[in-house]
Amino acid sequence: xxxxxxxxxxxxxxxxxxxxxxxxxxxxxxxxxxxxxxxxxxxxxxxxxxxxxxxxxxxxxxxxxxxxxxxxxxxxxxxxxxxxxxxxxxxxxxxxxxxxxxxxxxxxxxxxxxxxxxxxxxxxxxxxxxxxxxxxxxxxxxxxxxxxxxxxxxxxxxxxxxxxxxxxxxxxxxxxxxxxxxxxxxxxxxxxxxxxxxxxxxxxxxxxxxxxxxxxxxxxxxxxxxxxxxxxxxxxxxxxxxxxxxxxxxxxxxxxxxxxxxxxxxxxxxxxxxxxxxxxxxxxxxxxxxxxxxxxxxxxxxxxxxxxxxxxxxxxxxxxxxxxxxxxxxxxxxxxxxxxxxxxxxxxxxxxxxxxxxxxxxxxxxxxxxxxxxxxxxxxxxxxxxxxxxxxxxxxxxxxxxxxxxxxxxxxxxxxxxxxxxxxxxxxxxxxxxxxxxxxxxxxxxxxxxxxxxxxxxxxxxxxxxxxxxxxxxxxxxxxxxxxxxxxxxxxxxxxxxxxxxxxxxxxxxxxxxxxxxxxxxxxxxxxxxxxxxxxxxxxxxxxxxxxxxxxxxxxxxxxxxxxxxxxxxxxxxxxxxxxxxxxxxxxxxxxxxxxxxxxxxxxxxxxxxxxxxxxxxxxxxxxxxxxxxxxxxx
Length: 635
Ligand code: WTA
What we know:
alpha/beta, GMP Synthetase, Chain A, domain 3, eight-stranded mixed beta sheet, 20 helices, about 30% helix, globular, binds 5'-O-[(S)-ethoxy(hydroxy)phosphoryl]adenosine
């Protein structure tokens, strides 16, 4: 019997040891007992990190949609697969059952085929969070087309770059989208992008908002009439285990975005297995991840992981602030959500608002709270724990990356005791290592270093689309025989990991390494502060000094800035040491963020250094307008 569902700490340690001692037989058991195959594998694992080349379940054949849909039809046909909650709370939610989803995916797959799409073709999906997005993703997988989902908040330039990089033949989009009180002219952005995409042949347009849009004759087609006349049954394409399932772009620290390529079998197994355990999903639960399917979190933990387990996965079209800041909690109450997975940036934004927005709702259905995307600061962790979980729901701080395909370091709720700001223990099968500056592994506890992974896991990305050399250089050349994550981490006395942030965010002040996260934590604990970011800027004596960009809470706005600055520095001095004091502080109304909510320190670093002439492309930011404000204030 495989250990598919881990229920207590002793079992975790026992299964973990097994997964490390004999990874092949461990993953083979999981694959054998919990997934549907057309043909079994010849070899569980072949790998070589120097090339790098990793093959899981070589020789096996399968289709991921048979695992996510077909095999549930007899036992869960009427169970809700996707629970769609629209942007506008007065629009009814939709309960899409497994049978209905199976049919809708079949129809869509037949439409794709009728437009000449087949195995291996790339299809770009640029859709808001409506059911057609999940259906399109699965329809591609059904026929073996490689989906490349581009987050529908990206600009025309960003979309065009991604379409061209992997040479997509087709684009699936919508006439427009809702975002809180606004509507967005998605098709207008598409038309602009496609001026730069000569090889794209076909555009399928779903209708979401009633707007008058341009339809290019010969190229653009309304989706609904095609679906209406398509047969519901579409046989699944038989895929090799290592065939690409999808491409997903992630930005590098430099250069153009990297199209991470994920494979069929390994990705499926790891996304499903982590989902089951890290959210402790039980048959009747309603699970909600607030991410967008345009990010890896949405791929693995809205679509594939939940559906492979026959779960009910909630898809939310809206934003946390519409119609007011209670929306998340209203949805939790309305659908009796059991597992809720969001990002620290959302938690911090909501924590800034009146507590009544949370207190108004009955959140007693919640059993597990998750966070992902960046280190969660202590204040946000406690706010989440106290006000959302009422100290009853464990928080799983899940560390992972687009490249890793699934969660790598995380507590298992009700199994691993949690500690604020700690991602805690490696998940089953994951072998982390901390490395020093000289490339030597740092053993033992109470140490910190650069986080690497020293053994393959099933859902690791296999390459960067069209650029295997960049894949090798970025991830496998810094440390011999190891995957380098780009993150720094510490391991405490009991072996728990705390991710300290990107190693490129480390600032060396007077020869001391300072991570941005702990200093920001300290600043954020000041009662007048809502959020902050620090960067280094050149200093004659210290090499680097610290520059803080600080957003005040409403209550802080009336305070004297000079006094606040002193108090903040006093607090840093007390919590970290005088070395971490800020040399400059700027009170701002917002911080430049990526669409996934990460602070763009690169831009802040340039502003702090006075190099505002060359900020690079800021068009893909969530809030490009704050950049000008910060430049002006910085003088
Ligand atoms: C950061 C998101 C601390 C980290 C799934 C990583 C985190 C990058 C955490 C990947 C966490 C993600 N604690 N840092 N729980 N989760 N990160 O590719 O720096 O969008 O390398 O994948 O986010 O971001 P990506």
